[in-house]
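hey can u check if this looks right to u? its 236 residues, i copy pasted from the old doc so theres a chance i mangled smth
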Amino acid sequence: AAVTLATGKYSATRLISTLRMHGGYIGPIYVITDHPEEVRKHGALPLELRDHLGPAFQSDVARQRWEDSKIVKVKWYKTQLFHMLPNDIQTVLFLDADVEINAPMTSFQNAIADYKEHLAATKCTAYFFAERFYTPDNHNSGTGVLFREASAELLQEWGKEILTGKHIRDQVALDTTLKRTGLKVCDLPARMNYYSTDLMTQVTNILLGGRVQKHATFIHETARKNLRDLDSSVDH
């Protein structure tokens, strides 16, 4: 199944339409959301926030940190995917709502099938795109392949890390989780992803005659890094 997260002012409409039209994806699309009618209108299946329990906190301070968070708060639900989805769904392609599908997904789906077959040998708990070399992060959590069994410990620990309130982005919480636990995340093929608002990526694409964007499966629309993003944690 494909899963995304769209709450408040954010919409998954473009992602849903490009998954079907450009990607040729025929599987179920689930949207974690607080506006389910819009999701249904565009042919996807809503996972309503109000139908699922929020996190349990060890202290009132931790709860307040989470409540005060504007972005990371809702991203916690990304770590709860398999608790929200039907039990028969074993593999998830998670996509941020600002991702568009640029090309048929056949080769990507074949890669996922291969990943599943070799999970025991690779010891990978999940697959994400590696971050750009000039950023402080290791993985971009906006696109990932997750497995009900193999990813269970990673998602649990990642959720705990988000709830500490120490990070301004769930992506940083993911990197911290990997360092703390020693769990292994493997890389999705870099050629399949294009950061359309990133200056260095744009220049590279121009120098290569547009081939980088043309051959990418995923177009990440707003994945730019600014000075605020480089400050990965909040002070407490």
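The two ends are 38 Å apart (CA to CA).
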